[in-house]
């Protein structure tokens, strides 16, 4: 059952992924909680805290342009706005939520209506493919590029990394939160049972859509290891410090960061 994307062209892969997220958009937020026992919220909080968006000692605080790629229903973007505007008192931080899928963006837009007006004013939405970003995002214009649980779905990951490098300013940061490889064999066995056994079933029962959730589980299995992904980031031209990644929950997820020199 690893055949979901085998032998498909990049265009066909992109269309297949579009179909999956179109059908899961409405149930996406509830399903995330069910599938991860709510842990995805802790990972997302930690990811955003570790990036500390909006930090500035200047008066007025330094403006920052953040691009949240595959931003979907807004989980990362909303957290970054809150962190920058409320915790770091920096209203000059602007976040663009970009996603290839209009259905996911529509859910994000309606959720954003419950944000404070000042945060809504600092938020914009852009429908775009991460492997070929449009002129609305000029080269060297972005301070922070984030992608959470998105990159494994891209038809051409090296190309998306080169696009990230192109749109970032020198000194800008690439940050990725993604499912990764579990580094403990007991946990790995439990995790595989859960993901291959329960997740498609929950998808079927709760969202009425087994195939989309089967795809999501398989895409996690196919994604490169922490070390291999780190090298892909370096190959795209980023400088990676230290180990280059941080494992979360024993490697169920990992955070990778790189800087454009
Ligand atoms: N970042 C959000 C979060 O953490 O909740 C959403 C993650 S969701 C699992 C993955 C998103 O990737 C979907 O909204 C999907 O439409 C988007 N996506 C898939 N392929 C894409 C591409 N080539 N370019 C941009 N977004 C893409």
UniProtKB/TrEMBL annotation:
It comes from the Eukaryota. Its main location: mitochondrion. GO terms for cellular component: extrinsic component of mitochondrial inner membrane. Its EC number is 2.1.1.201. Keywords: Membrane, Methyltransferase, Mitochondrion, Mitochondrion inner membrane, S-adenosyl-L-methionine, Transferase, Ubiquinone biosynthesis. S-adenosyl-L-methionine binds at residues 73, 99, 129-130. It is found in: Mitochondrion inner membrane. It catalyses: a 2-methoxy-6-(all-trans-polyprenyl)benzene-1,4-diol + S-adenosyl-L-methionine = a 5-methoxy-2-methyl-3-(all-trans-polyprenyl)benzene-1,4-diol + S-adenosyl-L-homocysteine + H(+). Pathway: Cofactor biosynthesis; ubiquinone biosynthesis. One of its GO terms (biological process) is methylation. The keyword S-adenosyl-L-methionine applies. It is a peripheral membrane protein. The keyword Coiled coil does not apply. GO terms for molecular function: 2-methoxy-6-polyprenyl-1,4-benzoquinol methyltransferase activity. Component of a multi-subunit COQ enzyme complex, composed of at least COQ3, COQ4, COQ5, COQ6, COQ7 and COQ9. Belongs to the methyltransferase superfamily. LaeA methyltransferase family. Belongs to the class I-like SAM-binding methyltransferase superfamily. MenG/UbiE family. Methyltransferase required for the conversion of 2-polyprenyl-6-methoxy-1,4-benzoquinol (DDMQH2) to 2-polyprenyl-3-methyl-6-methoxy-1,4-benzoquinol (DMQH2). This is 2-methoxy-6-polyprenyl-1,4-benzoquinol methylase, mitochondrial. The lineage of its organism: Eukaryota, Fungi, Dikarya, Ascomycota, Pezizomycotina. The gene is COQ5. The chain holds residues 171 to 431 of 432 of the full protein.
């Amino acid at each position: 059952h690893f055949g979901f994307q085998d032998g498909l062209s990049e265009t066909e892969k992109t269309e297949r992924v579009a179909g999956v997220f179109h059908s899961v958009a409405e149930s996406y937020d509830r399903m995330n909680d069910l599938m991860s026992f709510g842990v995805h919220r802790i990972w997302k909080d930690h990811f955003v805290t570790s990036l500390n968006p909006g930090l500035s000692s200047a008066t007025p605080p330094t403006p920052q342009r953040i691009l949240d790629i595959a931003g979907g229903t807004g989980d990362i973007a909303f957290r970054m706005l809150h962190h920058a505007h409320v915790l770091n008192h920096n209203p000059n931080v602007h976040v663009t939520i970009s996603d290839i899928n209009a259905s996911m963006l529509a859910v994000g837009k309606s959720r954003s209506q419950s944000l404070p007006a000042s945060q809504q004013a600092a938020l914009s939405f852009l429908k775009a493919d991460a492997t070929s970003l449009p002129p609305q995002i000029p080269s060297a214009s972005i301070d922070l590029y984030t992608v959470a649980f998105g990159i494994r779905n891209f038809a051409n990951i090296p190309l998306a990394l080169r696009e990230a490098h192109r749109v970032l300013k020198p000194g800008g940061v690439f940050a990725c939160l993604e499912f990764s490889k579990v580094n403990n064999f007991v946990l790995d066995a439990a995790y595989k049972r859960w993901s291959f056994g329960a997740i498609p079933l929950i998808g079927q029962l709760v969202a009425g859509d087994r195939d989309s959730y089967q795809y999501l589980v398989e895409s996690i299995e196919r994604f490169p290891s922490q070390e291999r992904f780190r090298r892909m980031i370096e190959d795209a031209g980023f400088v990676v410090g230290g180990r280059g990644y941080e494992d979360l929950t024993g490697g169920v997820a990992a955070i990778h960061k790189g800087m454009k020199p």
